[in-house]
Amino acid sequence: MTAAECLLEVATGNDGELILRLRGDWTVSRTLPPSEPLRPAIAGARSLRFDDSTLLAWDSLLIVFLRRVMALAHSHEVPVDVHGLPQGAQRLLALSRAVPERAGAQRTDGRAAWLARLGASVIVVGEGLRALLSFIGEIALAVGRLLRGQARFRRADFLLILQQCGAQALPIVSLISFLVGMILAYVGAVQLKQFGAQIFVADLVGLGMAREMGAMMTAIIMAGRTGAAFAAQLGTMTVGEEIDALRTSGFSPMDFLVLPRMLALVLMVPLLCLYADLLGILGGAVVAITSFDISFSQYHDQTLAALDLRQFGLGLIKAAVFGVLVAIAGCLRGMQCGRSAAAVGDAATSAVVTGIVWIIVADALLTILYDMLGW
Question: Which of 18, 38, 99, 179 is the most exposed, fewest CB within 10 Å of its CB?
């Protein structure tokens, strides 16, 4: 005997009346009977009523079942008589119908079809792309106002952001760049030593830092450090409705908040990249001198022979592009932040992930472009 047969008896009365006789204990310790098998009987009935003469005990399980049965009856326009139910159940049913159900309150059964999930994902991606293009357009307009001398932001704030993006980032950039140079030297020298060509470790470290690693590591550091800070700052201002207050006061948030942050990163990331290049080369020199019997003068001369200003220039171009991307990622996620404290953390996390992804993609595209141009 099924759970439904133990708890429910279906009978037919006069004039096509459908009677649902409740039996036994309708408590949460029992399994809720499915209501869908009753659809054919309800659809063919002229009316529906309940009988609680054999009902022993009940709680919220009964109310959930009654709501589902009444929803089926309503869908087939079958009138329902609830006077056969306990007085407490009648009051709870009336209370449940007094306030409209909040959207999404009920747990849905199963997952949506794969085509529906695919369509929802495409819509989300499309909305994100549209928001990104709109944000980039607003930045372009703000830059245009800056070039015409019409952008309004506090110079003191700009100088403070410059300090935060530049001087205060030197310790972490120094440590990471020096260690990256040492790692490049170890990896390259171990292989070159097999051919007696360990002197070329200076070429490997110099070119690697100047063209690729200096700009990339600096940008990733700034994405994790400054991009997340930008997103948290703007997200907190969004939660506190400070950005809305700026708009109400006639100030453009793009001019007042986004533009100085983007300018600061565009100016500071190339300088930090050049500093990282020099620290990485110094780290490679320490490894070459202490572990592979290369004198400082040999390493110095070999590095000068391998590098020229063009190599550093290519790295600085990448650094400037990465600075723009980190600034856009941080400010975009901050401006898109929700109105809760948890949303600020989500915005900071999203800014870091978005910034790093954009950095890697942009680095790959620029490397391919350099190769096509013969640089």
Answer: 99
Alpha helix stretches (DSSP H) within the chain = 3-7, 39-43, 60-75, 87-98, 114-147, 155-165, 170-192, 201-207, 214-222, 228-239, 242-248, 253, 259-291, 296-306, 309-335, 341-373
Residue pair 202/306 in contact (Cβ under 8 Å)? The answer is yes
Nearest to 273 by CA among 210, 355, 204: 210
Task: Look at residue 213 and tell me if it is in a domain.
Answer: yes
Domain of residue 14, residue span: 3-98
> Cα–Cα distance between 324 and 331 in angstroms, integer?
11
Q: What's the pLDDT tens digit per position in 96-153?
A: 777 666 665 555 555 667 888 888 889 988 988 898 899 899 889 988 888 888 878 8
Please check whether residue 269 is in contact with residue 319, taking contact to mean a CB–CB distance below 8 angstroms: yes
The answer for residues whose C-beta is within 8 angstroms of residue 184's C-beta and 6 or more apart is 204, 205, 208, 209, 213, 280, 284
Tokens at 220, concatenated: 């990733």
Instruction: Say whether both 138 and 21 belong to one domain.
Output: no
DSSP for residue 225? I
Farthest-apart Cα atoms in the chain, separation = 109
Report the 3 state secondary structure along 86-113: CHHHHHHHHHHHHCCCCCCCCCCCCCCC
Other beta carbons within 10 angstroms of residue 222's beta carbon come to 30
54 in the Ramachandran plot: left (φ > 0), alpha (ψ -120 to 50) or beta?
alpha
Pairing of strands 8-12, 80-81: unpaired
- Distance between CA 26 and CA 21 in Å, rounded? 12
CATH number of the structural domain spanning residue 84: 3.30.750.24
The answer to whether the pTM exceeds 0.90 is no
